[in-house]
Write a structure and sequence with these properties.
The protein has 5 helices and no strands. It has about 190 residues and is mostly helical.
């Protein structure tokens, strides 16, 4: 008798496959001349198969994905700082009475860049406080920007950055609760 799921040969008295656990009891009789399914040498591990969607990054099942989520949050912070500094430099050379470029001329924007870089650096170092402050600061600065401009601008990009910041915050808490102690036990 062969398993209909994995093709492994099994004893006729068995109720389930010894290899994959599938039920060997079937409601239909086996077909004549039926051949067993070919068995691959090394079937893929379900945990190593990853989808390519952005939402797959929100799933943190193991230490590697936790570290990746933290790294992505740090990268998002550095990218946010780079976009902010680039916008501020471009706005310095613009002569307009338009609200967005005038907002970008604020000297506090350079302090904003420094703060984002510092928070991003500490996110890379798995700081829960920095990750939480990055989320709070990002949300607060977006609300302030939208109130200053009088409209909600750049919402899709805001949601993308918020996703990576929030996921990094979640991952830092998970790292400290599950994996930090495991790392110190391995080194000792």
């Amino acid at each position: 008798m062969f398993c209909s799921k994995c093709g492994a040969q099994s004893v006729p008295e068995e109720i389930s496959c010894a290899k994959c656990g599938a039920s060997l009891q079937s409601s239909t009789p086996p077909m004549e001349n039926s051949k067993p399914m070919p068995v691959t040498e090394n079937p893929p591990d379900p945990q190593t198969i990853r989808t390519k969607s952005t939402w797959a990054n929100a799933y943190i099942p193991d230490q590697e994905s936790c570290a990746r989520a933290i790294r992505n949050g740090g990268i998002a912070a550095m990218l946010s700082a780079a976009i902010t500094i680039a916008s501020a430099i471009v706005a310095l050379f613009a002569n307009t009475s338009n609200a967005p470029p005038n907002y970008m001329l604020e000297p506090y924007l350079f302090i904003d860049v420094i703060l984002i870089v510092v928070l991003g650096t500490f996110i890379f170092r798995k700081s829960r406080s920095a990750a939480t402050l990055a989320v709070i600061y990002f949300v607060g600065s977006k609300i302030f920007l939208w109130l200053t401009l009088g409209k909600v601008a750049g919402l899709p990009m805001t949601l993308v950055f918020l996703f990576f910041y929030a996921n990094a915050m979640r991952a830092t808490f998970l790292w400290h609760s599950k994996y930090r102690d495991a790392k110190t036990k391995e080194t000792t």
